[in-house]
Design goal:
- The protein has about 260 residues and is an alpha/beta fold.
- The chain is built from 7 helices and 13 strands.
- The protein has one domain: 4-Layer Sandwich (Metallo-beta-lactamase, Chain A), CATH 3.60.15.
- The strands form 2 sheets. It has a 7-stranded mixed beta sheet, covered by helices on one side.
- The radius of gyration is 17 Å and the shape is globular.
């Protein structure tokens, strides 16, 4: 584990380097504590989830609920570590669940959810008030969790590398440039005070949040407007040396 990163007194992230093949990307497991219980948002991979489980157990905290921001291996594979814990994810999870088992990451086992999450629904978890919104773009099954109307967990809609550089939007196999753009606009309209990421450090304050979103919106709008006749250097605010994972651009263009 790299560190425990605190968002506020009862919200933290266990931060890991994703894996040896991807040393420039963090993967985060977000923990909402509720007395002797905790809810996780995302579980990373099983070895990383085990670290979180053991650390929480050493503090007499039991994980009783898990929310998946989307059903990709680096978010869902660790759920098997918490075999008796309620697992919830998007109603659109099934295609990615099947891909995890058949194509992407067959060496891991995956759990099916006990509950599905519908768009624009709410629930209470201890003193937390949670609202859920479908935010496709990176993945069809992506959901955002809004905590107490001011802290938004946005999954992979915004990502940063280990140095803090923004990564390009990553449009997955079932993702969409247009949907990703619309989901970013939805996040911006919430006027959240904090954005929690599944990869990278959280953003704090309207100025930082709006800038992070606007950079990515500019990139997506430029692609959609210019189609494939676009120079990456011309459409990245600050230039490509200020961005990470620029190799995703070629894959993104295939979504036009």
């Amino acid at each position: 584990m790299k560190e425990i990163r605190w968002i506020k007194n009862n919200i933290c992230q266990y931060v890991f380097i994703e894996n040896e093949d991807n040393p420039h990307m963090e993967v985060n497991i977000t923990v909402l504590t509720n007395g002797e219980n905790a809810m996780l948002i995302d579980t990373a991979f099983a070895n990383q989830a085990s670290v979180v489980k053991n650390d929480l157990m050493s503090k007499d905290i039991t994980v009783d609920e898990i929310i998946l921001s989307h059903y990709h291996p680096d978010h869902a594979a660790g759920a098997t570590v918490f075999e008796d814990t309620i697992l919830s994810c998007s109603v659109h999870y099934e295609n990615n669940f099947n891909n995890c088992n058949v194509i992407w990451d067959k060496e891991h086992d995956y759990r099916k959810p006990q509950q599905i999450i519908l768009d624009n629904t709410t629930k209470k978890y201890g003193d937390f008030s949670l609202a859920f919104f479908e935010t496709p773009g990176h993945s069809k099954c992506s959901i955002m969790t809004l905590i107490d109307d001011r802290i938004a967990h946005v999954g992979d809609l915004l990502m940063s590398d280990v140095s803090g550089k923004p990564t390009l939007p990553n449009i997955g196999y079932d993702g969409s440039l247009e949907e990703h753009l619309n989901s970013l606009k939805l996040i911006k309209a919430l006027d959240a005070e904090v954005l929690i990421l599944s990869h990278g450090k959280h953003f704090v304050g309207k100025e930082e949040i709006d800038h992070a979103i606007d950079m990515r919106i500019h990139y997506l709008k430029s692609i959609l407007k210019s189609k494939d006749k676009v120079d990456l250097e011309d459409i990245l605010i600050g230039g490509s040396n200020k961005w990470a994972f620029t190799e995703w651009h070629r894959k993104n263009l295939m979504k036009l």
